[in-house]
Amino acid sequence: MDWTAGRHQHCRRYACSLDQLQPYLDGKTLSAVDGRLVSGIAQARASAGVSNATIKRDLVALSSVINFAIDQGWRDDNPVLPRLGRIKERRDPIVLPLIAHIDLVISRCPGMVADVVKLAMATGARQDELLKARRDSVDRARRQLTIIGKGNKQRVIDLDPFGGYAMISALPAYAGKPLLFWHSEGESYKSFAPNFVKVIRRTAAWAKANGVEFRPFRFHDLRHWHAVQWLKEGRSIYDLQRRLGHASIKTTEIYCEYLTADEERVAKQQTRTKSGTATNKSTPRTA
């Protein structure tokens, strides 16, 4: 795993957050950072139209600075923590990308970016999970992919549904390099996210100039697309929970909003078979 890249990403995120908070902290000493100041920052940011998720992310960065000060013996408390617990993040509504729009983006992706998009659709894996995936993480006998998700937790994904195994089998390998997805001389993608955004923007500009309908989407929306397709095809929501790495079934149930009542009923009645094919608990299928 590329731990250095992960640390750099966290450093950039914290630096960005602290930069956003600078106007509220300029001229303040560590002892001046108290509950009233933290509440004032949160309220001012909210009044400026900043989302709760961003406010919380910025305060996490400030909290880390205060924790460092505590470790150094410069102060004894962290006034940011109580405020963090009261900020509720509102989940943005999921807007599923249309398959025609995904295909339009795929046709404009450079290198192996198109392959990453296709495997995200086939597995529901997150962007960073796919970019860290290695060739030796593929169990070709069982047609499974082992990935490392959030919190360094490992999970195994069945590659047969949606043709994931065929996609991986068709990927070119770079001699002596371990990654499934690579560029240049087998190197990992360091700027995948901004490059994907550029592809989306170029596609949107082309679509507008040519009178073609196109709705931009995020890479993470491919995970949502996969989840809804999984359930609509009559598979188990409990298998989907494990497949996506959700700690709680409540998180997975957000996708029921995109199902009919009958589809939701089937999804919650399914159980897993050895082959990964869903069967109904109440009415088992016969051969």
Structural category is mainly alpha
Radius of gyration: 22 Å
Output the helix-strand order.
HHHHHHHEEEHHHHHHEE
What is the domain tally?
A: 2
Provide mean pLDDT, rounded. 88
Numbering strands along the chain, what is their spatial order in the largest sheet?
Answer: 1-2-3
> What share of the residues does DSSP label as strand, in percent?
5-15%
CATH-defined architecture of the largest domain: Orthogonal Bundle
Note the overall shape.
Answer: globular
The major pleated sheet works out as: 3 strands, antiparallel
Give the class-level CATH name of the largest domain.
Mainly Alpha
Counted beta strands:
5
Low-pLDDT windows of residues: 1-7, 273-287
Identify the CATH homologous superfamily of the largest domain.
Intergrase catalytic core
How much helical structure, as a percent, in the residues? 40-55%
Distance between the termini: 44 Å
By DSSP (H or I, 4+ residues per run), the number of helices equals: 13
CATH fold node name of the largest domain: hpI Integrase, Chain A
